[in-house]
Amino acid sequence: MSALLAGDLSEASRMAGVSLPGYFVTDRARWLWRFRLDQMAADPGHARWMVRQAVVGDNGLVVGHAGFHGPPDEAGMVEIGYSVAPDFRRQGYARSILIELLHRAAAEPAVTTVRATIGPDNVASLATISGFGFVQVGEQWDEEDGLELVFEAPAYTGDRALPGTRASDQRAHRQLRG
């Protein structure tokens, strides 16, 4: 993340072992890298919960980034965050990333609830979470993003299929690396 924060896409790609898109060094992305680096500096144990590259297929195509805002809180809640690079939007990648995040949350015994916060005008993200059991539980004001709608869903465990998943989602080779 330090190379990304410095705007060195070539070095960041070399360190990640995949070719990262220019989307990873936009002003918005660099704000995120600074924020996450500060979080990890405060508590290095939180690093495994932080942002990762969203990689598609065996060729290592990076379509965006995703992760949790931190480890579960005392009530077992984790908040997800994901972003798809503009060149890859409207191709089902956000849905696949969401499914991977939900699977990761379900694999953690301490996680009972998954939260997503979305701007009321972000129609694409609102559509992405629909069908996955998310229920709006409130609103909040975010210093960076402004008004956000707050949604929560139970973390699905055991052999139960995630709501909203299809057989094609289960077969797709998409993963989060980092």
Characterise this structure:
- The structure is a single chain.
- The protein has 178 residues and is an alpha+beta fold.
- The protein contains 6 helices and 7 strands; from the N terminus they run αααβββαβαββαβ.
- It is globular, with a radius of gyration of 16 Å.
- Strand 1 (52-56) and strand 2 (61-68) form a beta hairpin.
- A 7-stranded mixed β-sheet has the order 5-6-4-3-2-1-7, with helices on one face.
Summarize the structure in short.
The protein contains 6 helices and 7 strands, in the order αααβββαβαββαβ. With 178 residues, the chain is of the alpha+beta class. The protein has a 7-stranded mixed sheet, covered by helices on one side.
- Give the low-pLDDT segments: 166-174
Number of helices: 6
Please give the radius of gyration in angstroms: 16 Å
Shape: globular
Order of helices and strands: HHHEEEHEHEEHE
Distance between the termini: 10 Å
Strand order of the largest sheet: 5-6-4-3-2-1-7
Structural category is alpha+beta
Tally of strands: 7
Largest sheet: 7 strands, mixed
Strand content of the residues, in percent? 25-35%
Residues in helix, %: 25-40%
Please, what is the average pLDDT?
83
Defining traits:
178 residues; alpha+beta; seven-stranded mixed β-sheet; 7 strands; 30% helix
Write the layout of secondary structure elements.
Blueprint: H1 2-5, H2 9-16, H3 27-42, E1 52-56, E2 61-68, E3 77-84, H4 93-106, E4 113-118, H5 123-129, E5 135-142, E6 146-154, H6 167-171, E7 174-177
Parallel strand pairs: 3-4
Antiparallel strand pairs: 1-2, 1-7, 2-3, 4-6, 5-6
